[in-house]
Amino acid sequence: MTSEINAKEQSRWYIVHTYSGQEDKVQKNLRQRIETMDVKDRILEVVVPTEVEVEIRDGERVEVEKKMYAGYLIVHMFMDDESWYIVRNTPGVTGFISSEDAHENRPKPIPIEQHEVDRIINRMQSDVRHVKIGFSEGDGVRIKDGPFVDFMGTVDEVFEDRGKVRVHVSFFGRETPVELDFLQLEKT
Questions:
Q1: Which of 52, 104, 119, 165 has the fewest Cβ atoms nearer than 10 Å?
Q2: How far apart are CA 83 and CA 9, in angstroms?
Q3: 21 in a domain, yes or no?
Q4: Which of 164, 177, 112, 95 minimizes the C-alpha distance to 133?
Q5: Cβ atoms within 10 A of the Cβ of 187, count?
Q6: How many structural domains is the chain composed of?
Q7: In a domain, 112, yes or no
Q8: Residue-level pLDDT, tens digit, the chain, 188 residues
Q9: Which of 84, 110, 131 is the last residue of a domain?
């Protein structure tokens, strides 16, 4: 059933839309279809883009794997009618990111540029953790730890890359900026 690979043809990455929350199940189903339909030479890779994010749970930093693009996965494949049909008709797949083509009876899937794929893969493999701080400029906060415990303040700036927040706190009637770890704060 596998068609011959044309020497001029090249594999590309495509974005596939799935039902939200079904990305892992679709990845498993698609991999199983690739195996049973013997199209490993046409559909090369199926990836659910994820990254590790640091969240706060019960006052502790916890690393959690999060989907980078909810409802989407990327597929590395040689696009032809057979491979399109196999991916498109996998349970949970709603379609490809595509454009209308007046000369064909179906929308034409648009491949992702290689630099975009490289950016996604590099972000997935990065050791840098994205910190979900949960504060934004103007938020009222109470300092719950450190030398300024129980002081109230207003968030002036958020430094997500460092997990820090600059808060304006009133000392003796003057607004003073204090840089704190986001673990030391709670919203008021």
A1: 104
A2: 13
A3: yes
A4: 164
A5: 11
A6: 2
A7: yes
A8: 444 545 446 899 999 999 989 999 999 999 999 999 999 999 999 999 999 887 767 667 788 899 999 999 999 999 999 999 999 999 999 999 876 554 556 677 999 999 999 999 999 998 877 767 778 899 999 999 888 899 999 999 988 777 789 999 988 888 999 999 888 888 88
A9: 131
